[in-house]
Design goal:
With 215 residues, this protein is mainly α. The protein contains 12 helices and no strands. The protein has 2 domains: 7-34 and 154-207, Endonuclease Iii, domain 2 (Orthogonal Bundle); 39-146, Orthogonal Bundle (Endonuclease III, domain 1). It has helices at 7-17, 19-28, 39-52, 57-70, 77-82, 87-90, 95-109, 123-131, 138-146, 160-170, 178-184, 192-207. The chain is globular.
């Protein structure tokens, strides 16, 4: 487990590993604080992640709010399993996502997925348990580790934004494959979650600067 450092200390550590990353950190500042959310909120965060898949931000937010309203104010396993077919579809939820949400609820309801125990499991076990749920792949599981579980050393090499951002930071000309990116993150252990965040920031900064990072 990564030592508990303040965001500014994590930024200092990452800066010391690569002067090119240090330049970006000077621009965007420390990474966000990572802290596990309460167990009671974890199911809804996973359900929301499913609802947001392959949707733009505004559309995802609208559909999610419709679902929350239709379910009485909160997305819980019990309410989802008791909701008649057609209710979620009327909110704009696709058939595939409705099936995924019900499967998630079933996994929690029958004990195959115990979100209250997730903080006690290592990353690989969390990913394995979540990936057994319909509609949840490795990327969603990694985002759950980084966000709701507040893990510091997750390195989502399958994320296009992370790969693009790392290429910008290191000034590489060619695209980086997920496999190729894996070992490139090693010098930044045990704070690769923050490194991934900086990769996303690099994409945003470059977009506002003509496609390049400021020198």
């Amino acid at each position: 487990m990564a030592p508990s450092l303040r965001p500014s200390e994590i930024a200092d550590f990452l800066s010391s590993q690569d002067p090119r990353l240090a330049s970006l950190i000077t621009i965007v500042g420390p990474p966000p604080l990572r802290r596990a959310i309460p167990t009671s909120q974890r199911f809804e965060r996973l359900a929301t992640a499913i609802l947001h898949q392959q949707l733009a931000g505004a559309a995802a937010a609208t559909i999610t709010q419709r679902v929350v309203t239709a379910l009485g104010g909160a997305i819980t396993p019990e309410v989802l399993l008791a909701t008649p077919e057609g209710v979620l579809r009327s909110c704009g939820v696709s058939g595939a996502k409705e099936a995924a949400l019900r499967d998630l609820a079933l996994h929690v309801d029958d004990g195959r997925l115990r979100l209250e125990k997730a903080s006690q499991l290592d990353d690989a076990d969390v990913i394995a348990q979540l990936s057994a749920v319909r509609g949840i792949g490795r990327w969603t599981a990694e985002m759950f580790l980084m966000g709701p579980l507040g893990r510091h050393d997750v390195w989502p090499t399958g994320d296009l934004g992370v790969r693009s951002g790392f290429r910008l930071i290191t000034n590489k000309r060619n695209d980086i494959t997920p496999k190729g990116l894996e070992s490139l993150g090693d010098p930044f252990r045990p704070y690769r979650s923050a490194l991934a965040w900086y990769c996303w920031q690099a994409v945003d900064v470059a977009r506002a600067n003509g496609g390049r990072l400021p020198k």
